Amino acid sequence: MALSQRYRLLAPLALVGAAALVLSGCAEAGPGDGGSGDGKGATVKIAGGITGGEADALNQSFEQFTKDTGIKVEYTGDKSFEGNIVTKVTGGSAPDVAIVPQPGLLQSLIETGEVQKGTDTVSKNVDEYWDEAWKSYGSADGTFYAAPMLANVKGYVWYQPASFKEWGVEVPKTWDELLTLTKTIQEKTGKAPWCAGFASDAASGWPGTDWIEDMVLRTAGPETYDDWVANKVPFTDSKIKTAFDETGKILLDPKYVNAGFGDVKSINATAFGDVAAKVADGTCALTHQASFLSANFLQVKTKDGKTPEVAPDGDVYAFVLPGMTEGEQSIEGGGEFVTRFSDNEATKKVVEYMSTPEWADARVKLGGVISANKGADPELASSEFLVDAMKLLQDKTTTFRFDGSDMMPATVGSGSFWKGMVNWIDGRPTDQVLKDIQAGYEN
User: Fold this and answer.
1) With CB atoms 3.0 to 4.6 Å apart as the test, which of 2, 88, 98, 196 could cross-link to 93 if both were Cys?
2) Within 13 Å of residue 200, how many CA atoms lie on the same side as its CB?
3) CA distance 183 to 178
4) Is there a contact between 126 and 335 (Cβ–Cβ < 8 Å)?
């Protein structure tokens, strides 16, 4: 699979533990003690936007490493990480390691001059275990800095198989069939079929960018997608407006959203992960979200009071958002990058371990996530769905593109684009929204 774009394969990953840790912000995660010459006895502090139960699992993934090396790892999650990490780095408050979910943000951090270059060991691991394109996402001006970490596949539509059976409907094979399915469910139930949530604190709006990226890939094709990400095709181009118009057939239609939460504008007030509970209890028939949503289902209950089973014949499952014609299988995705600021031996050993199949297996085995590390075992994934998603990510026949907004400059990808999606849902005309987003390139 040739990966041409980068990610947020990512964007925030979801809850995976039975209980969430109460974690402080990364402002308290200053550089750790380098320890002895071999790093033994040191504490390495990692900061990122991953919070809740998944932060708990991230800390657990280092238990064997700590036993083997004597190096303690402390990860601290901050929901506002993406909006404040550059300021903290330039202000002298960088953590030892940051888990950065957007290549655009990574480039901004590299420009501060504070990011350490990747070690030879990390570089060799990335060459061996990832597609060549992943290394370019973690590089700048030919210099390698950051290895990829976890991954997720975007562009899924989550649903209840039992409800589909009850309504006599099937998984759609084209976009038009999906629109027909939406209409059919609305007519059969008298309720809005779809739910969506764009709220994500300082990152609010990013779930909307995923919708648009999926639609650009499907309506305009991968080459136009690449040119759009590179700003060779502006947001104001008719091809991008078409993607907004198609998405609006669902997200801007009051008959079709926002199941369980309110009207169209309630999308902006709904946390992106909260849709899982509504799909699990049957309130919401359809939602568009990445593979990480499977982890959110571990935190909710079905109407019977049990944890939903994610399986083709289980309580919930997902299909890839269909293309314009039958047979197309296009996905976008993302992933985080392990970014080192401290140059002590302990920190080097931690980031080197995180670039190995052993760490990927340790984290995947804890549940809720997948990895694009070719040496990792997809059979260790915590559900049939995640096993399939991990294999899909590695499938050379799948058209894959990295999350577009994460490849764009931060002023656009995590700036005007995120904000534009919020304004669009609030009712701002599409043409104005497109102009506003494009203006982010001028900042």
Assistant:
1) 88
2) 28
3) 9
4) no
Q: How far is CA 106 from CA 161, 168, 298, in A?
A: 39, 47, 31
Q: Which residues contact 168 (CB under 8 A, 6 or more apart)?
A: none
Q: What are phi and psi of 152, to 5 degrees?
A: -150, 155
Residues ≥6 apart with Cβ < 8 Å to 93: 27, 30
Helix axes 120-129, 345-354, angle to 10 degrees: 0
Q: What is the pLDDT of residues 237-261, one digit of tens each?
A: 999 999 999 999 999 999 999 999 9
Q: Where are the alpha helices (DSSP H) in 366-416?
A: 384-394, 404-407, 410-411
Residue 232 and residue 226: Cα distance in Å, rounded? 9
120 Cβ neighbours under 8 A, 6+ residues apart: none
CATH number belonging to domain 26-152+334-383: 3.40.190.10
* Among 399, 394, 405, 392, CA closest to 221: 399
User: What would the two tokens of residue 342 be?
Assistant: 């401290």
What are the start and end residues of each CATH 3.40.190.10 domain in the chain? 26-152+334-383, 156-330+406-442
Residues 257, 185: Cα–Cα separation, whole Å: 12
Higher pLDDT, 383 or 397: 383
**The tokens of 127 are what?**
């060459």
CA distance 286 to 318: 9
Decide if pLDDT at 399 tops 90.
Answer: no
DSSP 24-88: --GGG-------STT-TT-EEEEEES--THHHHHHHHTTHHHHHHH--EEEEEE-TTHHHHHHHH
Q: Highest mean pLDDT: which of 29-43, 126-140, 267-281? A: 267-281
The phi-psi region of residue 22 (left if phi > 0; otherwise alpha if psi is between -120 and 50; otherwise beta) is beta
Find the mean pLDDT for residues 193-208.
97
Looking at residue 412, the DSSP 8-state letter turns out to be: I
Q: Mean pLDDT, to the nearest integer, of 102-130?
A: 94
* 7 three-class SS: coil
Taking 3-state DSSP, the helix, strand and coil percentages for the chain, each rounded to the nearest 5, stand at 45, 15, 40
Cα(286)–Cα(284) distance, integer angstroms: 6
Residue 4 has pLDDT above 60, yes or no: no
Look at domain 156-330+406-442 and name its CATH class: alpha beta
Helix, strand, or coil (residue 329):
coil
User: Nearest-CA neighbor of 102 among 229, 197, 188?
Assistant: 229
